[in-house]
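Record type: monomer structure entry
Structure origin: computed from sequence
Chain ID: A
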Amino acid sequence: MTIPLPSLRGSLSQLQRAVAKFYFQLQQRFEGNVLVSSMWAAMGNDLQAQVESLSKLPPSFWQSFNKQERELSNAVELIPPWNGENLAGSLRSHLARTVDIEEPIILNVYAQLIRPLRVEWTELALDFYVEVKAHLARVARSIQLYSGDPALIQRCAVLLQSFEKGVQGPAIIEEVAARPSRKKAAQPRHGGKATSRARGHASIKEAHVQSLDKISKRAKPRVQQIDISRRRAQR
């Protein structure tokens, strides 16, 4: 008896297979160009590897998304559809379509899945994270080489940065937010000592200045007497 796939896992698996099929169709479309054809084939293989990695995750992982299942399932369903009628388009149009497909999957679905995986950071979690990042890097490199569109290249670069921020951002924010509280807690311990020391240094400095003033005032009459006696002696 087979156990039915959870809604989120099942819909995501169907989406990944559909995207892989789209890339393999583009492989056949550009079979006259070995480099471009192999690029689409590699991207299709990336999606198949992602399906396999997610299938190895334990059921407890998917159960942890019970509260977010509807939200993530809706994000999967909102991925813009495509069909094989547009396969005759240009290479640039297909690369732009690739970003339209990959962007919501990576930011709205993959980043949400990888974030809890980072808590334990097992080998399975690391495999999926590396596969997604390598696939996104392949997309960015392909667009940079073959699109000839600066705006599309910039969009893909922003996508890569947004993915890293979405996966690692929350952990960094918590760490940075905890640092100021430690410094504030340490200030009252040394505040009294620092104030007393400052006052002590100020009093010592003031006494030293006053003593120098007294010495200088006493020394002036002696200089005048010596000058007067010298003048009398010269006369």
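Annotation 1: The CA atoms of residues 56 and 124 lie 7 Å apart.
Annotation 2: Residues 1-6, 171-179, 218-226 have pLDDT under 50 and may be disordered.
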